[in-house]
Amino acid sequence: MTERREVYETLDLALRVGEVLLSSGAGAADVTAAMLAVTEACGVRHVIADVTFVELSLRHQPSSREPAADQVRRVTQRPIDYGHLTQVDETVNRLVAGDVTRSEARDQVARILSTGHRRRRGAVTIAWGVMGTGVALTLGSSPVVCLLAFLTACAIDGTQLLLPLHRIPSFYQHAAGGFLATLIAVIASTSVLDVNPSRVVTTGIVMLLAGVGIMGATQDALTGFPVTASARLIDAVLNTAGIIAGVGAGLTVGDMLGVGLTTFTPGAAGLAEDGVTLFGAALAAAAFAFASYAPLRSLVAVAMVAALGQGTLLAVDSSGAGRTWGSAVAAVTVGAVCYLVAGRFRVPPLVVVVPAIVPLLPGLDIYRGLALLAEGKDGVLELASALAIALALAAGVILGQYLARPLKSEARRLETRLAGPRMVGPFRGRGASDT
Fold it and tell me: What residue segments make up the domains of the chain, in order of their start?
C-alpha cells in the first residue's frame, strides 16, 4: 500500500510540473520529457505520458499481472507566468540531480503555485504600456504616438483582466482588445494632433499577438505531436481572427463617424534611425518579459537578444530579400543565441526566446491587410504575408536551437532525443529513459 501511494504521489508531482510547463507555452515534447524525468528521478519507471492541449495523463503499469496506476490532470488556460515556470524548472533540475527528495520537491512546487508575486499588478500594467511604447519606436513613431501606444497597451491590459472574470471566451477578449486599440486611434484622429493611427493600432495588434501560441503549435507539429499541434493551431487562429474582427469593427466605426483611418498609408512605418529601432525592440521585449513575471536577471538577456534579432531583420530586409526571409533569418538567430546564453542567466530558453521575437510579430502586415480590405481593395495578400511571417518566426526559432545544439556538446550528449533542443525542462538525469 505504501509503495502504491508513493507511485501516486510521484505521478501527481509530475502532472503538476507538466501543467505549469504546458500553460506557459512549452511544447508537448518538452512537457512529456520533463514529466518522465520527474518519474524516473523518483524511481518510478515504465511510465507512459500523454499530452494534449487541455489534458495531461500518466500511466504506470510495472507488469501485466498488476493493475495500472492512472492519473489525469486538466490544464486550464492561464496567463503566461515565467516566474513560476523558472522556479518549477529549477526544482525539477534539483530533483533530477538528486539534491532534493520527492517530498521536498512536492512541497516546493506547491509553495510556488500557491504564493503570489512580489511584482505589483500596477507595475505589470505599466510594463505593458512600456511594451507598447517600444513597439511604436520600432515603427519610427513620434513622441505623441508613443504616448498613445502606451495608453492603448494599458487599456488593452485592462480588458484582459476584466473580461476573464466574467468567463468571456478568449476570442472575444482578443476582439475587444483589437476594437479598443482601433477606437483609440479613431479618437486620436479627430483631434488636432498629427497622429498616424496605423502605428497605434499596430501596437495593439502586436500586444495581442504576443499571447497567441503559434510557436508552441509549430514546435508540436515539428516534434511529432499532431493532435496537440492542431488544437494549439486552432486556438491561435481563433484568437488571431478575434484580433482581426475587433480591428475591422473599429475601422468600420471610424468610417461611420467620418474618420477615415484608411486615408493613411496602410502600415506606413516611416524612416526611423536604426539605433532607435533597435532600442525600441529591446524595450518592447524586456517589458513583455517583465509583464510575464520573468525573473529580473533575464531582462538583460531578453533585451540584447531582441535587439540582435531586430538588427538581423533590418539587415536582411534592406538587402532586398524581403520581410518574410528577414523574419526567418532573425528568428534562427534568436533561437540559436537564446539556446546558448539562457543557461548563463539561469532561466529556461523559453523565457528568453518568446519575448525576444515579440518585436518581430507581423502586426503591421495585419493592419495593412485590414486597411486595404476596408478600402475595398485586395488585402488578402497582406494577411497571407502576416501568416507567412508568423510561421517563419516559429519555425526559425526552433531551427536556430537545432543549429546551436552542436556548439554545446555536453548538453547535446545529455539531452533526451524525445524533446530535441529543450526550451524548458531538465537535461537527461540519471537513468532517464526516452519511453
Answer: 2-116, 121-411
